[in-house]
Structure formats: C-alpha cells, structure tokens
Amino acid sequence: xxxxxxxxxxxxxxxxxxxxxxxxxxxxxxxxxxxxxxxxxxxxxxxxxxxxxxxxxxxxxxxxxxxxxxxxxxxxxxxxxxxxxxxxxxxxxxxx
Length: 96
What we know:
The chain has helices spanning 11-22, 28-35, 39-49, 52-63, and strands at 2-4, 7-8. It is mainly α. It has a domain at 8-74. The protein is built from 4 helices and 2 strands; from the N terminus they run ββαααα. Helix 1 crosses helix 3. The chain is globular, with a radius of gyration of 13 Å. A two-stranded antiparallel ribbon has the order 1-2. This is TIGR03643 family protein. InterPro entries: CHP03643. Pfam families: DUF2805. It comes from Flavobacterium ardleyense.
C-alpha cells in the first residue's frame, strides 16, 4: 500500500497507524517518529482506509482532542509511551 511517495506500508503497519491515530493519548508526533508520516499523511491514510462515516467521526474527534498534538497538551503529560508499549512488536519507540 502506498500512502505517499515516501514509503510503502504493510497491512500490519497500516493497522498500527490507524490504531495510533484513534488513540487519544497518542500524538501525531509519535506517529511521525515511528512511521515518518506527518499529520497530513495520516489524514490521507485514514481517509483512504476508513469508511467515509468513520473518517468523519475520527476527524471530529481529533479536532476536539487536546492530546493529539504535543503543543496543546497539558504540562503534566510529557511522554507518549504507554506502559504496555514494550509488548508491541516492531516498535522503535520501545527500543529506546
């Protein structure tokens, strides 16, 4: 699957990107760090992979979610790794 001219993603990677995009506490910067996709690229992927109604729900949710962008987060939240992150395979973040 080609999302942009930058990289080709496997179905497993696409599923993980979609999962991270739906998670409220996972900022777009984490997706960029792990998959080199900017916010606009994630939006394109979501629009392509989801049903249109699901995409609209996701966009509405993202627009109202203050934790999807690091700059908008409260000062007490300074990381994007989950305690269970190490259990996820092929995850660059867990190998820090």
